[in-house]
Amino acid sequence: MSSSKKTVRMPMVARRLRDPDINPCLLESDASTRCMDENNYDREMCSNYFLKYKNCRKFWNSVMVQRRQNGVKPPMPTAAERNEILGAMGKMPY
């Protein structure tokens, strides 16, 4: 008798959220989750991580709105484009 391994597939929404081309704040999201895990889910201990994530989302949302208004497709820059944008700024805007 052979044993077969069942592969667990992430739902499409979860896969999309883990895609760096779709989610510009993946690192910030992971950092806040890790902080919560390490601090027994004490939200106060992780407020800096939450703020950084919130500012990241705000920044990239404004970029997306601007690109949409200018007719640029796709509205969200790819991971490579985002690295170029951040590099040109010289420092993290959030």
Q: How would you summarize the topology of this molecule?
A:
Blueprint: H1 12-17, H2 26-38, H3 47-69, H4 79-89
Helix pairs in contact: 2-3
What does this protein structure show overall?
The chain is mainly alpha-helical and 94 residues long. The protein has one domain (21-89). It has helices at residues 12-17, 26-38, 47-69, 79-89. It is globular, with a radius of gyration of 17 Å. The protein starts with 11 loop residues before the first helix and ends in a 5-residue tail after the last helix. The mean pLDDT is 90. Keywords: Disulfide bond, Mitochondrion. It is found in: Mitochondrion intermembrane space. Belongs to the CHCHD7 family. One of its GO terms (cellular component) is mitochondrial intermembrane space.
The secondary structure category is mainly alpha
The number of helical elements comes to 4
Q: Main sheet, how many strands, which sense, barrel?
A: none
Distance between the termini: 56 Å
What is the H/E string?
Answer: HHHH
Low-pLDDT segments:
none
Global outline: globular
GO cellular component, one term: mitochondrial intermembrane space
Organism: Myotis myotis (Greater mouse-eared bat)
Main location: mitochondrion
Keywords: Disulfide bond, Mitochondrion
